[in-house]
Write a structure and sequence with these properties.
This protein is mainly alpha-helical. The chain has ten helices and eight strands. Helix 1 packs antiparallel against helix 2, helix 2 crosses helix 3 and helix 7 crosses helix 8.
């Protein structure tokens, strides 16, 4: 069975900040939908596009899987006190958890940018098609995710179809722990060596240092030793 492509509209940082603000004020689903509709109606004219954008925002922060509700609640707590410059990284973690296609596309960009100064849309689409199959909906979704990454500041266009990948330093240990959790969970990793955590390609827009103490303090992980190596598990 083909994997579902459910990220078919571009999302701006303002949209993401707004859904967090709304959800922080009420957990009533009907009230949330009404508030999101009212906000998006000032930015999106098409009722279909508005509905799809709303559902993406809800899937990112509100309608999360049962096993991720504790993590979502911690992400909300972190969001309220983290530096405003690092909120994008919090949204990034939640998007990775919510949308496998977002995670896979970011992984592709991370791997490409690790070996070359620029990445091309053509190569990104080719790599993603190899993983997800040749589908018209995939091409449409890819363009929307690329637009989202540009709006998030994770891609800079140098010319049509060619991008560089700027990096942002993340210093809040709670944000870093959330990013680590999102990548391990989305990759289905039961455990991972501490020494390899910073190398995941999904972290490509961020410069970060993973601290064992901060992982422990987060309460999201179990720490063990296997063969003399420190191992982090969910």
């Amino acid at each position: 069975m083909s994997k579902a492509i459910s990220l078919s509209r571009s999302i701006t940082p303002d949209y993401l900040d707004k859904i967090v603000q709304i959800y922080s004020n009420t957990s009533d689903t009907d009230e949330i939908k009404m508030a999101v509709n009212e906000y998006l109606s000032d930015h999106i004219m098409s009722s279909t596009n508005l509905r799809k954008t709303r559902e993406i925002l809800l899937s990112t922060w509100v309608h999360v899987a049962d096993d991720l509700q504790r993590v979502r609640d911690k992400a909300l707590e972190i969001y309220t006190s983290a530096p405003s410059t690092e909120r994008m990284a919090i949204h990034w973690a939640m998007l990775i958890l919510a949308f496998p296609i977002f995670k896979d596309l970011c992984s592709i960009i991370g791997k490409l940018s690790d070996v070359q100064e620029t990445v091309t849309l053509a190569r990104i689409k080719r790599r993603l098609s190899e993983q997800w199959g040749e589908r018209t909906t995939l091409l449409h979704s890819t363009d929307k995710i690329i637009k989202t990454l540009k709006d998030l500041g994770a891609l800079l266009q140098v010319k049509p179809g060619v991008y560089t990948t700027p990096t942002q330093k993340i210093e809040d240990g709670r944000v870093i722990s959330l990013l680590v959790y999102s990548v391990l969970h989305s990759n289905g990793k039961l455990y991972a060596n501490l020494t390899g955590l910073e190398a995941y390609p999904e972290f490509y827009p961020f410069q970060l240092h993973v601290s064992l103490d901060e992982l422990v303090d987060s309460g999201l992980f179990s720490i063990d030793r296997i063969g003399g190596e420190v191992v982090v598990s969910l």
